[in-house]
Design brief:
The complex is a heterodimer.
Chain A (H helix, E strand, L loop, with lengths): L1 H12 L2 H8 L2 H34 L5 H13 L2 H11 L3 E2 L2 E2 H7 L8 H25 L3 H9 L4 H12 L1 H17 L2 H6 L10 H10 L3 H26 L11
Antiparallel strand pairs in A: 1-2
Helix pairs in contact in A: 1-13, 2-13, 3-7, 3-10, 4-7, 7-10, 8-9, 10-13, 12-13
Chain B lengths: L1 E10 L2 E10 L4 E6 L5 H9 L6 E6 L2 E2 L10 E4 L11 H11 L4 H15 L14 H13 L5 E5 L7 H17 L3 E5 L3 H7 L2 E6 L2 E4 L9
Parallel strand pairs in B: 3-8, 3-9, 6-7, 7-8
Antiparallel strand pairs in B: 1-2, 1-4, 4-5, 9-10
Helix pairs in contact in B: 2-3, 2-4, 3-4, 4-5
Classes of the chains: A mainly alpha, B alpha/beta.
């Protein structure tokens, strides 16, 4: 009720013409484009990490597994500002006489307070959700099929690629969608690690903050409504996939 | 031939020590024992899915103890069938053949041959989720036989089937037996399977293997 009431209040506060006017502004259009790009990049990176790590945690027993499992949860429970601060400190760590940031700058790719920092800040949190989703996905896939594939002539990599990963495709899509949505809502780590510079590191969440800070409440609400609409679409997609019984063990009809 | 020579393994609550037996080439061996006695563990060792702690496993004249499952030339039908859920029946049957880079026309011919043998021609374009238990069992058997393995390992292929389907499936196994010279290790709880199919019958009891007469399985 409270959530519906909040959304309705947002809608009543503004009008379609005001929303359109706000979203047409050059800096907000830049924030929309950067959000689309950075969220997609963070989601892809999260999947690249989430698939192998989720598989490892689901199928293998090894020393330190419990520790890795706990470490993955840290970004989920830490205050977002702490993640941003920790990233900032990490890039100031000296290696071979230069900070990590200086190494990246020497390679022609500065990170801190630039677009890569936005992606990294989003990835730092979104990856945890991707790993969790992929682990549950692999937990629900019958490992026996992979063993049969081994007896039929597959290497372990082939069995994973040809049998397990296709069965995990809905989980991969769900993990990517969740990572993308989590990245879109990320604010604290981006504010600390990337700053809130217009036309450079401004994403939609920072737009809401910047518009509020200059007293432009209607523009902040317009951007908020755009983010709410996106979140609803993402949740509908995730629930649509998540509710289908796609990870059946065995073959009984 | 399938032979285990003084194989030992500890897994879970049970231990198998110095297990030895031999199944002649082309024979159909029914393997019985109580639930949890280690039958599936032995089957998995033959398939290469578990490694023994001691002893040797021979398939034909070759010591395969250290070989990976893919190098053993076996067909394996697990208890839960474990069909590849994203592939049609046709693709399940063709899976091992594509890995071996058979030509497409050879694959089609072999799939058609297996489908006719197992009476699943009408199911070739279905996904596993749309199959009944008996149909899924036939597909799993066809998938295991596709690449003409020298050894076939069946883990309770008739379990979880109703009486009528079990009889149908037993007839299918008889057909496979008459059309193929594959050496078979068939784990079951049903003495009827031994009477119907077996050339040899082994019983696993208290971690030891005993050979019993096929016409008197109650001796187990």
């Amino acid at each position: 009720m409270l959530i519906v009431a909040m959304v309705l209040a947002d809608l009543a506060f503004t009008s379609p013409s005001e929303i359109w006017g706000a979203l047409s502004r050059r800096e907000i259009q830049y924030a929309i484009k950067l959000s689309l790009f950075s969220c997609t990049a963070a989601a892809l990176l999260s999947i690249l990490v989430g698939i192998p790590l989720g598989y490892l945690l689901s199928r293998e027993c090894f020393p330190g597994k419990g520790m890795i499992d706990a470490i993955i949860d840290i970004p989920i429970v830490l205050p977002p500002l702490v993640i941003g601060l920790s990233l900032l400190i990490l890039f100031q760590v000296k290696l071979g006489g230069k900070s990590i940031e200086e190494w990246f700058q020497a390679a022609g790719m500065p990170v801190t307070f630039q677009v890569p920092s936005v992606i990294l800040a989003q990835f730092a949190v979104a990856a945890a959700f991707a790993v969790r989703t992929m682990r549950v996905t692999f937990d629900q896939i019958n490992p026996r099929a992979e063993q049969v594939a081994l007896t039929l002539g597959c290497s372990r990599a082939q069995a994973f690629w040809r049998v397990t990963l296709p069965e995990a495709r809905r989980g991969v899509f769900t993990a990517a969608t969740l990572a993308w949505a989590r990245s879109l809502g990320e604010f604290g780590p981006i504010l600390v690690f990337s700053g809130a510079t217009r036309m450079r590191t401004e994403v939609l969440s920072t737009t809401v903050f910047l518009e509020l800070s200059v007293g432009s409440l209607r523009a902040a609400v317009a951007v908020s409504l755009l983010m709410i609409a996106t979140a609803v679409v993402v949740l509908v997609i995730v629930r649509g996939f998540g509710l289908q019984p796609v990870f059946r063990k065995g073959t009984e009809p | 031939m399938i032979a285990l020579e003084r194989v030992s393994i500890h897994a879970g609550a049970f231990a198998l020590n110095d297990v030895s037996f031999s199944i002649p080439t082309g024979a159909w061996c029914v393997f019985m024992g109580r639930t949890g006695s280690g039958k599936t563990t032995i089957l998995e060792m033959v398939c290469g899915l578990r490694s023994p702690e001691a002893g040797r496993i021979l398939l034909g004249a070759e010591d395969v103890t250290a070989l990976k499952p893919a190098q053993r030339g076996i067909g394996y039908v697990p208890q839960d069938r474990a069909l590849f859920q994203t592939m049609t029946v046709r693709d399940n049957l063709a899976f091992a053949l594509r890995l071996r880079r058979w030509r497409e026309e050879e694959i089609s011919a072999r799939v058609a041959e297996l489908a006719e043998l197992l009476q699943i021609t009408s199911l070739l374009n279905r996904l596993p989720q749309k199959l009944s238990g008996g149909e899924a069992q036939r597909v799993a058997l066809g998938r295991a036989l596709a690449a003409r393995p020298t050894v076939l390992c069946l883990d309770e292929p008739l379990s979880a089937l109703d009486d009528a389907t079990r009889e149908e499936m037993r007839a299918v196994l008889r057909t496979v037996r008459s059309h193929s010279s594959v050496t078979t290790l068939h784990v079951t709880h049903h003495a009827d399977d031994a009477r119907d199919l077996a050339d040899q019958m082994l019983v696993l009891r208290d971690g030891r293997i005993a050979s019993v007469p096929i016409d008197n399985p109650s001796a187990s």
